[in-house]
Design brief:
The structure is a single chain. With about 375 residues, the chain is mainly alpha-helical. About 65% of the residues lie in helices and about 0% in strands. The protein is built from 14 helices and two strands, in the order E-H-H-H-H-H-H-H-H-H-H-H-E-H-H-H. Helix 3 packs antiparallel against helix 5, helix 6 runs antiparallel to helix 8 and helix 8 runs parallel beside helix 11.
Length: about 375
């Protein structure tokens, strides 16, 4: 851990957010490694099932988008498209092509053209089992992300300063109306899903952090230690709180928001930040990691580690580490040699060219990017 020189007026350059993003993605990778059709490990080994990684992503997104958009709202919609669409489209078209040509390699992947179109344009499509799954089945979260971006874009047109609050009110209002008017319809189930409240949590954390003075008048180690202890308690709640009766916006969303607030304030107030280049790079590639990890995991299990679900438990734990490390390695390669160059080229076409930080250039700080 190092002492950060974070600009007190810039909430978009917080290293600890990148760390949280890496942790969130790795938790989801862990989940899919232990669940069927992965290693089918028992429920006690899943630590809250790892799904809380998605909730953490949503809370982070609410915070980061509020910070980015209110600081520099120019080309907001285009920047979000550039950030999300290129690799998502490439991955979706890649999986679609494989499913058409080699259907035996990709199970449970829809190959109809309607599914392809709705997936590419982030149109929620409810499946017969009641879930909303695009062609990349983990991409259901991106449907919510794009929904959040659309609301924020409209709010920015109304008021740059109050856009976060307008967005929060709109999300809660639409959720309430959709849930009350047609709770059983596809639109009611999607837009009325209480998971959207987690974007609001991120906005609330942004409002809180942006209003707290960060002048460092030797606050003392006890206060800093208290901040980290509260954050650790929130992280422990995420790990140990099982998915049972409470809705996830309560059992995972609230601890995720508290954890985010703690790590951001510890960096801004006390200058305490995790600056490991490896962890920050994993956070930078977390979007790619989130989208491609199921195919890395299940590909390895199918072709290299057949029958691993019957292996002794200690060997399975070691294999989980191998699966996570392999997924991270593949995602970093794709991020560095596909995602990053494509984003840089597209952002150069914008009227106002934002800086795209590159971890391959030593000494360059990274700005957290929304997922």
């Amino acid at each position: 851990m190092t002492r950060s020189a974070t600009n007190k007026d810039d909430l978009t350059r917080i290293a600890n957010i990148q760390v949280l993003r890496a942790v969130a993605a790795i938790c989801v990778v862990y989940l899919h490694s232990t669940l069927p059709p992965g290693l089918a490990m028992p429920a006690y080994a899943r630590f809250g099932y790892g799904q809380f990684g998605v909730d953490l992503f949503f809370v982070i997104s609410g915070f980061v988008i509020s910070s980015i958009a209110t600081r520099d709202p120019r080309n907001f919609e285009l920047k979000r498209i550039i950030r999300i669409v290129p690799f998502y489209w490439a991955a979706t078209l890649g999986v679609f092509s494989i499913a058409l040509l080699f259907p035996q390699l990709v199970h449970h992947t829809f190959t109809d053209w309607q599914s392809l179109i709705t997936s590419l344009f982030f149109i929620p499509q409810m499946r017969p089992n009641g879930s909303f799954e695009p062609m990349l089945y983990v991409g259901w979260t991106l449907d919510y992300e794009m929904y959040f971006y659309a609301i924020f874009a409209v709010a920015l047109r109304l008021s740059r300063r109050n856009a976060p609050l307008i967005s929060a009110a709109a999300i809660v209002g639409i959720m309430a109306v959709a849930g009350a008017v047609s709770p059983g319809s596809p639109a009611g189930r999607f837009y009325g899903n209480s998971i959207v409240v987690e974007f609001v949590y991120g906005i609330v954390v942004f409002q809180l952090v942006s209003r707290i003075s960060i002048e460092r008048h030797n606050p003392g180690r006890p206060l800093e230690l208290a901040g980290w202890l509260i954050g650790a308690s929130a992280a422990l709640a995420l790990l140990l709180w099982p998915w049972e009766t409470p809705p996830r916006w309560e059992c995972w969303g609230l601890p995720a928001a508290l954890l985010l607030a703690c790590v951001v304030l510890c960096e801004r107030r006390f200058g305490a930040a995790i600056k490991s280049r490896a962890i920050l790079l994993a956070g930078d590639g977390s979007y790619v990691l989130y989208l491609i990890h199921p195919y890395v995991i299940y590909g390895l299990l199918r072709f290299l580690f057949r029958g691993a679900d019957l292996w002794p438990r200690p060997v399975q734990w070691a294999l989980v580490a191998v699966l996570i490390a392999s997924s991270i390695a593949v995602s970093i390669v794709i991020h560095l040699y596909f995602e990053l160059p494509v984003m840089r080229r597209l952002r150069q076409m914008l009227p106002h060219k934002p800086v795209l930080h590159d971890f391959r250039r030593p000494g360059v700080a990274n700005a957290p990017r929304a997922t």
